Amino acid sequence: NKPMPPDDMAGVPDDLRMGYKLLKNAGYVPEEVTLKKEISRIEDLLATCRDELEKITQLKRLGCLKTKL
Questions:
Q1: What's the whole-model pTM score?
Q2: Nearest of 17, 9, 69, 11 to residue 39 by alpha carbon
């Protein structure tokens, strides 16, 4: 017998599980996940950016995203 895969809904209250499952199946991604991905992308961009004006623009954008998160 193989063990069951971990339940990714283990921390979700029973009364909310169906709603979360519907959102997940519909492809909904929580805003926090989207923001974290964008922050990571900008941080990677800043690590290699040589243009000072572009760096300033991206740093401002990064600050706004971190505030929003």
A1: 0.64
A2: 69
